[in-house]
Specification:
Length: 171
């Protein structure tokens, strides 16, 4: 018996990725429906590919983060608008307001550290190799200072709710 699995004619990995990205859309949609008020201590780190199709961020941010950046939705965000294909949100970077448009297909990680929940995705953008960059730090809440760099989203041995999907495609 061979250890090599046969190639699937059903794109399971794409189907699962799409379903998990729908979780992000549903969570953000619930927040939008609740007047953009985050319940309790919930807050989100959302990492996305800045060069992915449909991403629209200010030029200064795309120059600083040419591959990937992480935003924090916690206290200072506005105009959250969730659509079927993605979301838009207003955030402040160094006290300068900015509108970001992020398709769900560009998201590579979604974390809610308040409940130790995270999702990590394969990049949907064909063969975009990650480049070195600074972690994004949009303005935090008053009194809390800058937000910390995004947490690593990895498989956890401590029982946390982190989901990583990687079907290991044959090359």
């Amino acid at each position: 018996m061979s250890d090599d699995a046969p190639d699937s004619l059903i794109p399971y990995d794409e189907i699962v990725q799409e379903a998990l990205r729908a979780v992000v859309g549903r969570v953000l949609g619930e927040i939008q429906a609740n007047g953009s008020e985050l319940p309790g201590a919930h807050h989100f780190y959302i990492t996305f590919k800045t060069g992915a199709p449909g991403v629209d961020i200010p030029k200064s941010l795309s120059e600083r983060f040419p591959d990937e950046m992480t935003i924090v939705l916690q206290n200072k965000f506005w105009d959250l608008d969730v659509r079927e294909e993605g979301f838009t949100v207003g955030l402040s970077f160094n006290q300068i307001p900015a509108k970001l448009i992020v398709p769900f297909s560009a998201i590579t990680a979604f974390v809610d550290p308040a409940v130790d929940f995270g999702l990590q995705f394969q990049a949907s953008v064909a063969d975009m190799a990650p480049e070195e960059h600074d972690d994004a730090q949009n303005d935090g809440s008053a009194g809390s200072g800058e937000q910390s760099a995004h947490p690593a989203v990895t498989d956890s041995e401590d029982g946390s709710n982190v989901v990583t999907v990687d079907f290991g495609r044959k090359k």
